[in-house]
Every structure is written in C-alpha cells, then in structure tokens.
Structure prediction request, 181 residues.
Amino acid sequence: MDKFEQTNAEFEQAIAECRDLFSSKLHDYRASWRILRPTALTDQLFIKAKRIRSLEVKKESMVGEGIRPEFIALINYGIVGLIQLEQGYADTVDISNERALELYDKHANEALELMKRKNHDYDEAWRGMRVSSYTDLILTKIERIKEIENLGGETLVSEGIDANYMDIINYSAFALIKLKG
Prediction:
C-alpha cells in the first residue's frame, strides 16, 4: 500500500468512527441539530475547538474527556454545517434518521475526495504537522466563517463557508489519525 492509499484508509477509518457516534446520537436525539441556525453552529464549532486548544495548553482536563472526542465532534458538526448549508435550518426535526445518514455520507465522501486531491498536491505534508497546528488552523477557519456570516456571505475573494467546513473536517480527521497512532 502506498502512502496515499494508507492515508485514504486511515481517513476512512476516522470518518467511520465519527459516523458511528453520529448514528448513535441520531438514535438518542434524532436530527435535533436541524434547528441550529448558522451562527449557533459556528459557535458550537468554536467551543469545541477552543476546548481542544485549552486542553493542549493546560495539559489537564477537569471533566475527564480528552482532546480526541472534541475532534470527533468537530468532524460531525462540520458535516452538519454542510448539511445545513445545503438544506437550510428548520424549526423542527424535519428529516428521518435514515435521510440524515444519507446526507452525512454524501458530505463525508465529498470531504474524502477533497482530501485526496489536496493530499496529492501537498504530498502528505499533514504528517509533518503538529496536532496543535491543526487546532490553530481550525480556529482560524472558524473565525473566517464568523466574518463571512457577519458580512452576510458577501465576500470579495475568499472561499465560502462550505470550504471552511471541509477544511475543519479534514484537519480534524488528520488529528484523529495522529492521535490514534
């Protein structure tokens, strides 16, 4: 297996772990996240990434959960963000669990395909990065999303919110891969 095939397999394993948790939460809560407006979703991403950074700096968790579950949450909320961009938010849970998983799979696959293209061009550069750098890059992406939201989506040259969600998903998957090994 070459290095790119290995990365693809590791990425797929990381996403499968996230999907399993997403599916379990659908069972427990249904697609309650459908109610989240874009700004609330951005703030949810922010608190997850901020907690990771806090734990990286403090080296101690007072609630017992570590960094890995937060990267899983970033992936799942990133995919929820892509779904919400596509579907819009709702006032009630308006999709079945099965439909939510179909949409999850669609956007997870899009993230995988983007990662493959970027990984080809960057030649596995992510492997030489520190997990803390992923955290800082994710926080930067979240700040960009906030600014795009504040501008009402009217940007001059930047990629859209969806591209930032995709980068958050991919950086988080790289973090999961590195934290597993």
